């Protein structure tokens, strides 16, 4: 083999070796990015688990406190029920005895009233008999008086012979007058006695009815007493039930206490795991940064990589955008203050949140003509968009600039313009001043869906002032 042929062979081998190194570095960056994404997901999940463990621990503490309060309340209720039972028991006994004695007394009163009424009825009958006899005596007195008057007339006719008979006649007349007067007085007294007996009979009848009603009421009181005694039994059963419930509650308190201890240990373990994951996430991000710097070093050192065309495209487009922005400032189409405005104004009713600045209308006018053609460079390219130094993406590709609807998940995937992407990739692309930055990341497509992507960005500088960067994202 000639020296020239040998040198050519070595040169080809060296180029192949450089290409192989670049490719391996690229694959290493992809793997590191994938691991970093997984660790970030685990760290996020660990944070959620820690929050859930703390919430569960707090809930267990609240349940334990509630069980303890229930135990105290049950103790108080049991004591109160026992006191009520004692009072009701004593009251029921006293009321029952009183009602029984009152019933006996009232029954005796009712019987006495009924006996008085019967006696009065008999007396009334006797009074009527006396009235009848008095009337008969009055009639006899009148007839005797008439007979005496006739005898006196006959004695007067007889003259001296009838003088003795006249004296008898006068005596009989006097006796008749007395009998008549006595009969009249007896009749009056019997009338008064009858009226008094009628009034007494009415009163006795009322007393008898009242006594009967009182006996009925006393029967109702006896039923109430029975109800009260049943209530005493219910309170007694309540005390028994509270005693039966107390043991499970005490067991629950002990169980909650044990669970609280275990949850505390779990929360501590989750917190420790989260700390390790956060540390691992930081370390993987550091390794990812080293991988990105290594890729920059390889490219600047002349090593060929599979991503070289995208790097060259990003740098060229960033330069074109910088030139257009600089020319617009020079022509007075937009001022530097407006072009660097970072007072983002929220667009009301958007979800995810969209914002505008004083340069949004300007980028809508000039960026589509520069960004859209990049999508045709390679079918692997997902998007091409410029972001400012805070990750704000004012004007996206048309396919990702749809009007928002009512579904936040759909909006997240299809309405990506006018949004701030302040994740590591977005901020790094906007703030890097290196010739280029090649990042590997997982793109959040919304709804828990991710796509492994590479993001090649180059800085955009206006009149010596760093505005942001152009991002070209392409599938791995």
Automatic annotation (TrEMBL):
InterPro entries: Chemotax_Me-accpt_rcpt (IPR004090), MCPsignal_dom (IPR004089). GO terms for cellular component: membrane. Keywords: Transducer. One of its GO terms (biological process) is signal transduction. The keyword Nucleus does not apply. GO terms for molecular function: transmembrane signaling receptor activity. Residues 24-267 form the Methyl-accepting transducer domain. Belongs to the methyl-accepting chemotaxis (MCP) protein family. This is Methyl-accepting chemotaxis protein. The lineage of its organism: Bacteria, Pseudomonadati, Pseudomonadota, Alphaproteobacteria, Hyphomicrobiales.
């Amino acid at each position: 083999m000639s020296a020239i042929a040998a040198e050519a062979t070595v040169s080809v081998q060296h180029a192949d070796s450089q290409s192989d190194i670049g490719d391996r570095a690229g694959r290493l960056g992809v793997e590191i990015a994938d691991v970093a994404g997984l660790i970030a997901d685990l760290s996020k999940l660990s944070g959620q688990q820690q929050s859930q463990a703390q919430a569960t621990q707090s809930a267990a503490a609240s349940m334990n406190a509630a069980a303890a309060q229930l135990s105290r309340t049950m103790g108080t209720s049991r004591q109160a029920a026992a006191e009520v039972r004692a009072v009701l028991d004593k009251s029921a006994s006293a009321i029952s005895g009183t009602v029984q004695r009152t019933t006996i007394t009232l029954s005796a009163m009712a019987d006495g009233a009924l006996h008085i009424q019967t006696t009065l009825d008999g007396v009334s009958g006797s009074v009527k008999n006396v009235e009848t006899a008095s009337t008969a005596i009055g009639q006899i007195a009148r007839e005797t008086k008439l007979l005496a008057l006739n005898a006196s007339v006959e004695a007067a006719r007889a003259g001296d012979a009838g003088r003795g008979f006249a004296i008898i006649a006068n005596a009989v007349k006097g006796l008749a007058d007395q009998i008549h007067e006595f009969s009249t007085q007896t009749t009056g007294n019997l009338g008064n006695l009858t009226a008094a007996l009628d009034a007494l009979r009415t009163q006795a009848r009322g007393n008898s009815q009242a006594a009967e009603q009182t006996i009925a009421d006393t029967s109702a009181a006896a039923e109430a007493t029975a109800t009260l005694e049943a209530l005493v039994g219910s309170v007694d059963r309540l005390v028994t039930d509270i005693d039966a419930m107390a043991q499970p509650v005490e067991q629950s308190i002990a169980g909650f206490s044990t669970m609280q201890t275990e949850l505390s240990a779990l929360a501590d373990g989750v917190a420790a795991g989260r700390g390790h994951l956060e540390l691992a996430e930081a370390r993987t991000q550091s390794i990812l940064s080293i991988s990105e710097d290594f890729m920059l070093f390889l490219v600047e050192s002349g090593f060929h990589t599979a991503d070289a065309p995208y790097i060259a495209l990003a740098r060229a487009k960033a330069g074109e955008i910088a030139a257009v922005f600089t020319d617009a400032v020079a022509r007075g189409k937009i001022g530097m203050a407006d072009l660097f405005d970072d007072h983002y104004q929220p667009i009301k009713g958007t979800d995810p949140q969209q914002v505008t600045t004083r340069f949004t209308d300007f980028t809508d006018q000039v960026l589509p003509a520069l960004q859209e053609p990049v999508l045709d460079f390679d079918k692997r390219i997902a998007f091409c968009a410029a972001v400012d130094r805070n990750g704000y993406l004012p004007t996206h590709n048309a396919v990702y600039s749809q009007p928002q609807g009512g579904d936040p998940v759909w909006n997240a995937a299809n309405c990506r313009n006018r949004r701030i992407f302040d994740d590591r990739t977005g901020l790094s692309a906007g703030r890097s001043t290196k010739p280029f930055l090649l990042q590997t990341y997982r793109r959040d497509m919304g709804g828990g869906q991710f796509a492994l992507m590479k993001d090649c960005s180059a800085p955009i500088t206006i009149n010596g002032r760093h505005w942001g960067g152009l991002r070209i994202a392409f599938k791995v």
